[in-house]
Design a protein that fits this description.
alpha/beta, Rossmann fold, eight-stranded mixed sheet, globular
């Protein structure tokens, strides 16, 4: 059930082969939709022909709602290929929940309890920590580690449940003092309510008269530290817990950008780190080694990690990394088109281009107030970037009218790009898995832990040194 090194390479090659002819689509910018004619220059002609023949509204129904149209062979094929490239469909390299349970049973552990916390957390966070704490506790029992280090521990949602429910010693490490202080305050509140919460986790927040203090300050401790490849975790445990450990695990829930790659590298080279369980996020913050515009002065890169892709000098590019964080499963579940502001922004770019507004001054940012029409949007946007253009409302209305006919086509383009996001994510995560296998960690595997509709970054990379 754990994938072989060759199987991982084969899947990476397949993904790259699927992605390569679509790179112009991946690397295009929505804001340039009209100014650079990106639909005509980046959408393959076979797809353009299908969309022209069936119309944009029908294309949207196929892409967003799964409608079938026998006159759209190439579009149907595109959807099927991108769907097959989602990591949870690559069963040779990604374990599902059943596979994961069988693997844990094979390693001698299957009786770890879980707890769904309903207080002090959002529904999304409740879903994540319920599933992840059970997996971490199972790995902890299998490996007989003494401590768990929660990297990027934030407000301590994961760490506090590991300590309170599973009685595991946890060191929460975060680079933000604000997060560390927040974790301390939150765990104190949870300690007071724990007895009520543990016996009835679905109950609403208990009243203060029901509070019974459950101290875990001997189990859960926090430290503010910026984690690098040279971080001495043994010394941190010794300094904070006042005890030595040569057998501990590293976990992270939504470790951001290069931090996930750093955790993987540290696990690889530190013999005392016996387990790894990492759920990553924010791929757009990765530093790519072979990206020509990379300004990383530390010579430490988050992608690629594997020698296989390093030898190819493989890169995805900043735009592709931005795209990889899109939530396709959530988009398809809701069956919703993007906010109309996306179309407004593309039309606004025409205006900025015609008036020779410097590109560095075109960062409109978020529009805080609701816009009822294009004219309001333009006025607010120009105010955001402190640009004055002598344009009447009638001129703006005419500009909008000239391009309104292309609105549905823009949404088709948006959906086509979004369909490629899981493919890019799969390449990033399989590169990390391959790195571990290249370095002899043959127990390493990827698994889908979370419901991607609830928590889009749903994959965990797990490795044990048995």
């Amino acid at each position: 059930m754990v994938p072989s090194l060759n199987a991982i390479k084969i899947e990476i090659d397949n993904l790259i082969a699927t992605l390569h002819p679509l790179l112009p689509l991946v690397n295009s910018h929505m804001v340039d939709y009209f100014t650079n004619s990106v639909y005509n220059t980046s959408v393959p002609s076979t797809l353009q022909n299908d969309i022209y023949n069936i119309g944009c509204e029908n294309a949207i129904n196929i892409l967003l709602k799964g409608a079938h149209n026998s006159c759209a062979f190439h579009l149907n094929d595109f959807i099927n290929r991108t769907k097959a490239s989602r990591l949870y469909n690559l069963r040779d390299v990604c374990l599902n929940q059943s596979d994961l349970n069988k693997k844990f049973l094979e390693w001698g552990c299957n009786d770890v309890s879980s707890l769904k916390l309903k207080v002090f957390v959002t529904e999304k966070k409740s879903h994540e920590i319920e599933l992840l704490t059970k997996v971490i506790a199972t790995i902890y029992n299998i490996s007989k580690t003494t401590h768990i280090i929660d990297v990027g521990g934030g407000k301590g949602y994961l760490s506090s449940l590991l300590a309170l429910h599973h009685h595991i010693p946890v060191l929460g490490v975060d680079s933000s003092l604000v997060h560390t202080d927040g974790a301390i305050k939150r765990v104190r509140l949870l300690e007071k309510a724990w007895k009520c919460v543990e016996h009835n986790p679905y109950k609403s927040l208990p009243s203060k008269k029901d509070y019974t203090l459950t101290k875990i300050d001997h189990l859960y401790k926090q430290v503010t530290e910026f984690v690098t490849e040279s971080t001495d975790f043994e010394q941190l445990i010794s300094d904070i817990f006042l005890e030595k450990s040569t057998n501990f695990g590293l976990v992270g829930l939504h470790t951001c950008g290069d931090l996930a790659a750093t955790c993987i590298k540290v696990f690889n080279k530190n013999n005392n780190l016996r387990t790894l369980c990492n759920v990553s996020c924010c791929y757009h913050l990765l530093n790519e080694e072979f990206e020509s515009n990379n300004s990383n002065l530390n010579n430490s890169f988050g992608f690629p990690l594997s020698a296989y892709l390093k030898n190819k000098q493989f890169k995805l590019g900043r735009t592709a990394l931005m795209l990889s964080s899109q939530s396709v499963d959530r988009m398809l579940y809701r069956k919703e088109l993007p906010n109309k502001l996306l179309f407004y922004r593309s039309v606004l770019e025409i205006l900025l281009e015609k008036n020779n507004v410097c590109k560095t001054k075109r960062q409109v940012g978020k529009i805080r107030r609701k816009c009822d029409n294009f004219v309001e949007y333009v006025r607010m946007s120009l105010g955001n970037i402190d640009i004055k253009l002598d344009l009447s409302n009638d001129e703006l209305i005419k500009l909008y009218g000239d391009y309104e006919v292309y609105e549905s086509q823009l949404y088709v383009f948006y959906l086509l790009r979004c369909m490629l996001a899981p493919l890019i994510e799969a390449i990033i995560l399989l590169d990390r898995l391959l790195f571990l296998h290249e370095n002899g960690h043959t127990t390493a595997f990827l698994t889908q832990l979370f419901d991607p509709i609830i928590s889009p970054r749903c994959y965990a990379l797990i490795a044990l040194k048995l």
